[in-house]
Amino acid sequence: MTRYADFHRRSIEDRDGFWAEQAALIDWQVPFDQVCDYSNPPFARWFPGGRTNLCHNAVDRHLKDRAAQNALIFVSTETNQERVYSFAELHAEVQRMAASLQALGVKQGDRVLIYMPMIPEAAFAMLACTRIGAIHSVVFGGFASVSLASRIDDAEPTVIVSADAGSRGGKVVAYKPLLDEAISLAAHKPAKVLMVNRGLVPFTPVAGRDEDYAALREQHRHTEVPCTWVDSTHPSYTLYTSGTTGKPKGVQRDTGGYAVALAASMKHIFCGNAGETYFSTSDIGWVVGHSYIIYGPLIAGMATIMYEGLPIRPDAAIWWSLVEKYKVTVMFSAPTAVRVLKKQDPAALKKHDLSSLRALFLAGEPLDEPTAKWIAEALGKPIIDNYWQTETGWPILTICNGVEQAPSKFGSPGKAVYGYNVQLLDESTGEALTEPNQKGVVAIEGPLPPGCMQTVWRDDERFVKTYWSSVPGKMVYSTFDWGIKDEDGYFFILGRTDDVINVAGHRLGTREIEESISSHPAVAEVAVVGVADTLKGQVAVAFAVLKDPSLAATEADAKALEASVMKVVDEQLGAVARPARVRFVSVLPKTRSGKLLRRAIQAVCEGRDPGDLTTMEDPAALQQVKDLVGG
Ligand code: AMP
Question: In this predicted model, what pLDDT tens digit does every residue of 326-381 receive, in sequence order?
């Protein structure tokens, strides 16, 4: 047996022994009594009895040995700022933010919603929350008022931390009007809004509600806020993600299990060492940003780069210039970003000294072979694909080079990661598929390892129903991805089993987009599907039936209507959810029982055979789609 196979086997067969060892990678104020309490499946309680604090592990515990070392490196090519915070400075800033939140009434267990661009104050706010036992809920800055309002209502935050504006590609995006609109739409009203004013757009504070962070920070310049030790199972944060239904789910994460899982992943997967620099190009609004911009690298005592800007501005060498300047050893990005870079001058990669870099990790969407080959060749470094989800918080499938060096296979994120008992299940019978190369649903046997979601925020029933009840007769966690496993144990991910699409590594529910489009006064009915795209992996394409078909009678009318539908999505959900095309049809392909045939529409859009259509009510409906997409 190889070293890794043995390591993985032990993590499953001697689960408690294995994770007790990993738990020594973090500081505990009070040791745990038990490693894993799985007496009430599928709810796993990791390290019960133990008390710890995420912020302590990410910041305070490094003060002894590395107070002057770089901790947070902020680079904005949008506002041309660059600022480096040592661990001591980060510690001071986090306390100022924590004191400000406390001054606004935030207590342990309260929620704080963070709606921020990629600026240091966003990191301070996250760490300040976990420092005082408040539960943060970061909402991606690209989301607009309706998306934000639904998250405000679900999280019911005491305070919202926000900023006047973000900036993308040199274009200022005002956040404040979106936030004000979201709060007016939401039933829950936060007591206070803490505003970071970057001076990008003028705004009028709401009297009695909006507080200026600069003023509060100044007041609390020297206030000390000790870490609040919390139970290992105390929720550290919630993060919303899309699923089959329109309502986003609040993925709830614990404290101790998450800290241990991240510390272990930094060692066994990312091979990052204290004193080095980690550069993840994600955004704090996504799970990669939580785990591998903020908590993972800092827990490991690494400096982390927080980058606001595009990968190709001012030019395609910007990321590599940061690798050289800060001697980045570990980098994490997404295939979409690499596909963007691929279109640029390849010389950009050769302009800088990349000798510090050991590997580039990619995740979030399928890594296609041409992209993987191009970047591997251009960089001359190992490219390590890793597959996981918001729900798990850290990789499910990858190559664990920290345990044993192993080759990658193109098209495969790798093998099951330690702690995960990954199975492929037959969709209809729930039987585990034991022969190689059989297609099944990627599932994980409970308990989920430390760091994975505890439950859906305030909705245990939805957690059980959504994730653990999709396979007949068996309580097993479904990832909602199709996969196969080859004879060497390498998995290949074949796409989602549900109506979730993945646009440029961003997970979107087609139902959410459909709901938004349906609110357009001209639209009677709509189907949204994900269609393969060479740059973004997938794009959303909408097919809408109009209440009055004459509204799209001419090409110019249809174009104008398409733009106005897109505007509705932009305003409600944000530009991330905007479909690439909105096409108008007189009828949608449905089964005789009225179920939308999204898969058939998707197949036609991608030029594939739509399969068995015997249950279709009106074959002319699919023909209309074919005619529109030129199939
Ligand atoms: P998210 O929760 O936004 O991270 O999205 C998770 C989903 O993205 C997974 O369920 C997969 O469908 C997809 N995904 C993430 N990483 C990969 C990968 N390395 N290869 C293929 N699909 C991936």
Answer: 999 999 999 999 999 998 877 888 899 999 999 999 999 999 999 999 999 999 99
Q: At what angle do helices 120-132 and 87-103 cross, to 10 degrees?
A: 70
Ligand 1 centroid–CA 509 distance in Å is 13
| Rounded Cα distance, 598 and 614, in Å | 15
User: What is the CA(241)–ligand 1 centre distance, in A?
Assistant: 12
DSSP 291: I
Atom of ligand 1 nearest to the CA of 397: 19
DSSP bridge partners of 478? 443
Alpha helices (H) along 311-443:
318-325, 335-342, 369-379
Backbone angles phi, psi at 469, to 5 degrees: -125, 15
Contact 435, 421 (CB under 8 A): no
Ligand 1 atom closest to residue 286's alpha carbon, by position in its atom list: 3
Output the CA 333–ligand 1 centroid distance in Å. Answer: 13
End-to-end CA distance of the chain, in Å? 51
Q: Which of 242, 251, 360, 389 to probe ligand 1 with, by most ligand atoms within 8 A of CB?
A: 389
Residue 135 near residue 109, CB atoms below 8 Å: yes
Question: CB under 8 Å to 585, separation ≥6 — which residues?
Answer: 543, 544, 545, 621, 624, 625, 628
Q: CB within 6 Å of ligand 1 — which residues?
A: 241, 287, 363-367, 385-387, 389-390, 413, 479, 481, 493, 496, 502, 507
Beta-carbon count within 10 A of 107 CB: 12
- Ligand 1 centroid to Cα of residue 251, in Å, is 15
Find the 365 Cα to ligand 1 centroid distance in Å.
5
- What is the best residue among 287, 338, 365 to mutate for testing ligand 1's pocket, by most ligand atoms within 8 Å of CB? 365
For residues 329 and 276, is the Cβ–Cβ distance under 8 A? Answer: yes
Banded model confidence at residue 427, pLDDT cuts 50, 70, 90: confident
Between CA 531 and CA 340 the distance in angstroms is 18
Give the Cα separation of 581 and 530 in Å (integer).
Answer: 11
At 309-326, the pLDDT tens digits run: 999 999 999 999 999 999
- Tell me how far the alpha carbon of residue 337 lies from the centroid of ligand 1, in angstroms: 15
Residue nearest to atom 1 of ligand 1 (CA): 389
